[in-house]
Structure formats: structure tokens, C-alpha cells
Design brief:
332 residues, alpha/beta, D-Maltodextrin-Binding Protein, domain 2, 9-stranded mixed β-sheet, 15 helices
Length: 332
Amino acid sequence: MNINRRTFLTGASVALTAPAIVAGIRPAQAATTLTLGHGAAPGNPRTVAAAKFAELVAEKTAGRVKINVAGSETLGSDSAMLTSLRTGALDFTANSQGATSAIVPELAALGLPFLFKDTEAATRVLSGAVGQELNKRFEAVGVVPLDWWDNGVRHLTNSKRKIATPADLKGMKIRTPADPMTIDIFEALGAGTAQIAFGELYIALQQGVVDGQENPLTNIESSKLFEVNRFISLTAHKWESTPFLMSKIAQARLGADLEAVKAAAQEAGILQRKLSIEKSGQVLEAFKKNTSIDVTEVDRDAFIKATASVAENWKKKPFGDFVKQIEAAARG
């Protein structure tokens, strides 16, 4: 089912203001219909996995639960969707780590510079004590993590010049998400930063509001950012999750079907991570073959050295012990 922001908000308002009426007119055998929102473009692994989740839920619940999927920021930015999730106006979101760290600050620590070499390493850490600690923090704000999908290893693009060392960033303004870790990383590298919603990023780059941005290769490809940023630097400066989240209000509505929905999320997550890894490799090869794109291998040691202070500063935060726990788990 295709839904837009207006119909979603109208329906959510009615559901929240008149639950007794809705319950009274619902047929005894009517399916429970829930909504999943995300910000990824068509073809993105997140988009494919979200559709798979809806399919699996219908299958595992014998049609008792139906999931409507709205992608491409149809229901607003990642931050707006998180607000809707916490109020119960939205039931699920495959969101961004940066936006989600606004409600669970500890989550941003997963993006410590050069902490994880790949998705498999990060997934291993999240499947253990670190993931359990994060679950507790999400529960405290009315949100239930169902899985940790992959948002990939992030790289830098710009419209000005090759960037191979931190010094090459001097004088540049880089768009970052509203994520304190990413902002700290690029400030440590000597760049200026600006926070712009992902849905507005292409135009901002096209108009020169910012010189560059950082994202996984799959996002750079699916949102066509390479069209306005031809210089791609393989910085691999951080890994990010895509937290797949459920509202506690939605959880209460599922009753006996809750475990089936959780299983569907896990299964869709396996697919999403697989597709994300595969797509990243395919996109990199395509970029290297594209003569209109300049792909640069960077001086990794120089970038690691320039950002070393970021982890030390984060260990001084109120949740510094958790930062240390993540670092130890990643290197264990």
C-alpha cells in the first residue's frame, strides 16, 4: 500500500484521538495494520529489506498483521519519524544512527573513528553485551530495538578536488548528519561542518551550499550524489548501524504475534546486511570504471592519527565507561 505524509498523519491523528471508536467498528477478523517508515531511496538494501519484512510478517502471522511501508522520507526525516515512533503515530522505523543518537546518546559511540573494519565485526559486537546494554537504554525511552541493520562503512565525497590526506580538507565545508560523533570526526580533520537533512542533500551539493558529504557507497549511488560530487575518497572513517526499531505502543498491539514479528525483523536483517555488503562492492567497482568519477585511496594512517583525539574525548563523557566497553569489545 502506498501512503504519503498527509494520509499517514491524518490516519495517525484519528487513531490516537478516537481509539474506542476505531476498536468498536473494526471487524472481528480484521488484520492489525502497522506502518514502517524509512528514508532510503528505491533500490537501496534498506528499501529491499523493509519490503521483505512486510512480506515475512504477513507470512508468519497468516495475514493477521499487515505492514505498510513508506520509504524515501515519505513520512518525514529520520528525526521526525523517531518522534512519531515514540508517540505511537508510527509503528516501525529503519532509521539512521545519527538521528537515533539524539534519544539514546550512547548509540553514537558505535561510530568511533576506525573502530570496526567491516559490518561483520560490528554485528558480532552488537550481538553481545554491547547490544544488550543498548536495548536497555532504548526501552527506557519507549522504543524496542528489533535488529541492527547495516548502514555501511562511510566514505567522503566532494565537488572540489582529490582528498587523500586530512590536510586536503582545509577550507572545505562538509555536510554531516546531526550526529555528534561524525561532527567531531570532521572537526578533528580540520573541516567545517553543516547539518542538512538527507532528503535535501542532493540539492545542497548541487547548489554549493556545502562542498562535500560522507555516506556509505550504497547511499551515494542510490541517491545519485556522485552526479554532484565527482571526487570520492575511500576514507572508511566509520561504520554505522541502521537501527530497526519498534514503538512500545505497537508492541502492545501485537499480542501473540509479537514473536513472529521479531523473527521477521531478524530474517529481514540478515538479508539487508547481505545485500548491503554485496551492493557496496558492486558500487565501488562501478565507480572505479566510471570515467566521470575520481576514486581516491587515502592515507589511512594519517586519517587515523588525525582523529585519535575523538575517542579519548568521548571516554570523558558521562557514559565514558560504555564507550570503553564498545572499544574493548571491538578489539577483543
